[in-house]
Automatic annotation (TrEMBL), chain A:
Domain DUF1468: 5-147
Short name of one Pfam family: TctB
Organism: Chromohalobacter beijerinckii
TM segment ranges: 37-55, 76-93, 99-115, 122-143
Protein name from the UniProt record: Tripartite tricarboxylate transporter TctB family protein
InterPro entries, alphabetized: DUF1468 (IPR009936)
Keywords, sorted A to Z: Membrane, Transmembrane, Transmembrane helix
From TrEMBL, chain B:
Keyword terms of this UniProt record: Membrane, Transmembrane, Transmembrane helix
Transmembrane segments: 107-132, 144-160, 167-185, 197-217, 313-337, 352-376, 388-405, 411-426, 433-450, 470-489
UniProt KW Transmembrane helix keyword: yes
Name of the molecule in the record: Tripartite tricarboxylate transporter permease
UniProt key word Transmembrane helix: yes
Residue span(s) of domain DUF112: 17-437
Originating species: Chromohalobacter moromii
Domain of life: Bacteria
Amino acid sequence: MKDFLLGLAFIAAGAIVYVVAQGFPTMPSLQYGPSLFPSLIGGGFMIGGLILAISRVGALKGIGHGMTWRMEREQLRNTLLSLLPALAIVFYILTSEWLGALLSLALIMFVLMLARRTSPLLALGVSLVAALVIDLLFSRYLLIPLPEGLLGVWG
Amino acid sequence: MDAFLQGLALVFNFQTLLVIFGAAIFGVFVGAVPGLTATMAVALLVPITFYMDPTPAIAAIVTTSAMAIFAGDIPGTYLNIPGTPASAAYVGESHQLARQGRARETLGTNLVCSIFGGLFGTLVLVFVSPSLAEVALKFSSFEYFWLALLGLSCSIFISIGSKTKAFLSLLVGLLLSTVGLDMMSGAPRFTFGIPDLMAGINFIPVMIGMFALNELMMFYSSSNEGRNVPAVHKDKVFGSVPKHLKHYWRNLLRGSSTGTLIGALPGAGADIAAWISYAMGKSRSKNREAYGTGHIEGIVDASSANNSGISGAWVPALVFGIPGDSITAIVIGVLYMKGMNPGPTIFMDGGGLVYALFTVFFIANLIMLPIGYIAIRSAKVFILTPRKILMPIILCFCIVGAFAINNAITDVWIMLIIGLVAYILARNDFPMAPAILGLVLGGTLENNFMSSMLKSNGDLLSFFSRPISASLGAMVILIWFLPLFIRLYRRYRGAPQSSRTP
């Protein structure tokens, strides 16, 4: 089932890549322009996606009737949990400028540790120390300009 | 001789040796914690090595990967969970031995085999690559086009599981490689008006997304922490190693040579080397029935193979700039960023650098003996490290590491998007190695194709007009049709006896 949908997704992506590639400029002096490779890749996506989708059609027929779209509760919970790291990254991107890297990172680690039922005190301690170490390593030792945010204001 | 001494001086200084030592400890740790792979270790290391000199940077990567591949066997033996995918082939075997109370003996044998395999691969690297490089000096864009295509084709052909999925995964990597300004015309492709994308997608955020963020998401989607170390083992680490080696020296040599060869094939790394040599060892063994019940013979084959594969993968990477596995793919990205182009010229004008690299390989494999021994003795520490605390810290390293390359938040976005895509694909059994190979080799493939076409006025047949180029082309075509031939051969073999012609 998933393979069928992924196959369709690849076909759609291939079509988009192909269409976008046709818009790339061509040069009269070159037989093969910048659109050649992207077009080939788009075509490959469509062919591969088609094969993937077709190979799963047989399996689809059997379950087509009794299929339910309702997900198991645990499965839903796990899917949501798997998105946690991604959400954490979005949080960092949005907040690091004014919270500062140090605080954002510490917050992310604290929440993620709690999500897996770490004791709050331990989570707090470890995330503060780890955030300090990461911040020192990158901004003092490797001289990466990590955003200082609120802490920068205090000096 | 001068270059050789220069190379030694590059390695035997306090900073480099300290880096090697640190990398060894880091490698043991990452390898021994289940769910953290050797490739992930290297991807996390890259932002830090980015700011080092070439020699310590390479030393850190070599040592980390070699140590992590060995250390992956520690949780494999105790918990039946492979620490890295390269141990997956024989975890069943080593866990059975652990249940018989022979965990340390198994790991000791394993360690010695890993070291032997690594040194074997290194010797091949030292002796084969300079002469290969002389051949490679004669190559032009035609040959490099075929070589890149050969590497990409191998990565699909050798992948385990669906070839369609491997093909699609490869295309994803190739598509990523086309982002940015086109080499020939200067036209922007797939940049969506974002200035940071003009120079192309940076490797490192992609690697971190693909190998680290992906694994993190896998961890959060599964709810079992699953760890209890059942028995306390008091057997000797190296006690029965000489006996085993005397008994199975053929397996040791066979595993190491198979591993080096498979490692040198583009797209196939330590994990595939371990699977194939385990299967080979089993089919050649006198006690085939003993396999799967805790038989040390299979471990000798496979554990020497995965470490020799790590060294073998460097042969095509250094000589042709075609990575042998995903770790060397990362290394090639690093070398390019440091302005050193991997390829035959590294052997000619690199000064001491090549010798430094070779020396690093020897040291990295030798340092495994003491550090591996300590790791085996203190195995419990790694196994009991709670991942629920470790994983959030790794996530933060990912974020800062991706940011650090260009000091650009765009790279953090790239890591996030690639990580999400990789997660969806990996959950559905798409292999990741072809994608990373596609990203690394995409540019090589396209640029060499375009410059060949410029030289020959767009005549496609010119790809077959030079002898080396023609034979490489023939090899590529052969690989494409190999699955078809194998299927025909099987059908032919399966046909009734009477229809068989002599």
